[in-house]
Amino acid sequence: MCLIVFNWMDHPDYKLMLVANRDEYYKRPSTPLHKWDEGFFAGKDLKEGGTWLGFHPSGRFAALTNFRDYKNERDTARSRGELVRGFLDADLSPIEYLQKIESKKHLYNGFNLIVAERDTMCVFSNYKEGIDTVEAGLHAISNSFLDTPWPKVISAKADFRRFLLQNHRDVDSYLGLLQSKTLAPDALLPETGLPFHLEKAVSSQFIHVDDYYGTVNTTVVLWKHDGEVIMKERKWVPELEESMVAFAVKDQCPRNS
């Protein structure tokens, strides 16, 4: 997952409104959004068994982006997809879970992990000290820290803000976001260790690098304050495929921790 834009706790009807693009090698196998045996809803990476974004009907949500530091990538690192799966299948608060992950952050290549439960959302990166609580409002994240002003992050937030003002309610209309293929100006490209031509190629919201890498799916999550959740995924690779689930978050008593 390489670009996520979302509105958190700042809408009269929705607790969370989120659109996310997953960028991956086209040959890496995965299954579409579905219900896992563990009870949560997510797509599945068939290579390592993890996922990039998911939601448990108990009210637990998690999503992941890579923190891009190409020169320090390790083939021996553990799969980052297990971090999302771990939270969805755990019985820990967002803070407790991220504290657990913090102690073994060195085992993974760079990542940003967003976890939410009830009215709490937190984000943690293994390239930054500490766990941050996500404030109410509009946010976006790509392959650096939350709200780092890369061109695609700025444009994603601007597009989403206009979308909110137009008061769209249909889940299909949200799938039209994060589809821009406009490349960033050379002077505004970040430096993440990629060769210049690749840094340029991945600077758009929707990515296509020749026939081997790019945006493989777009996912929408709409979570109402009353507990209703709709998730819809549009999978672009290897062919167009759509999956949608709807469920209600189960009522739970507040945690003591």
Could you characterize the architecture of this molecule?
The strands form two sheets. Strands 1, 2, 10, 11, 12, 13 and 14 form a seven-stranded antiparallel β-sheet that branches. 16% of the residues lie in helices and 35% in strands. The protein is globular. The chain has helices at residues 81-88, 94-102, 151-165, 171-174, 196-201, and strands at residues 3-8, 14-25, 30-35, 41-45, 53-56, 60-66, 111-117, 120-125, 132-133, 137-141, 208-209, 213-224, 228-235, 241-248. The protein is α+β, with helices and mostly antiparallel strands. It has one domain (3-248): Penicillin V Acylase, Chain A. This is NRDE family protein. It comes from Negadavirga shengliensis. InterPro entries: TANGO2 (IPR008551).
State the gist of this model.
The protein is about 15% helix and about 35% strand. The protein is an alpha+beta fold.
Q: Which SSEs are present, and which pair or pack?
A:
Elements: E1 3-8, E2 14-25, E3 30-35, E4 41-45, E5 53-56, E6 60-66, H1 81-88, H2 94-102, E7 111-117, E8 120-125, E9 132-133, E10 137-141, H3 151-165, H4 171-174, H5 196-201, E11 208-209, E12 213-224, E13 228-235, E14 241-248
Antiparallel strand pairs: 1-2, 1-10, 2-12, 3-4, 4-5, 5-6, 6-7, 7-8, 8-9, 11-12, 12-13, 13-14
InterPro entries: TANGO2
Protein name: NRDE family protein
Organism: Negadavirga shengliensis
Biggest pleated-sheet summary = 7 strands, antiparallel
CATH superfamily annotation: Penicillin V Acylase, Chain A
Please give the alpha-carbon distance between the first and last residues.
30 Å
Number of domains: 1
Level-2 CATH architecture: 4-Layer Sandwich
The count of helical stretches stands at: 5
Helix content: 10-25%
What is the CATH C level class, in words? Alpha Beta
Along the chain, the helix and strand elements come as EEEEEEHHEEEEHHHEEEE
Output the radius of gyration: 17 Å
Round the mean pLDDT to the nearest integer and report it: 95
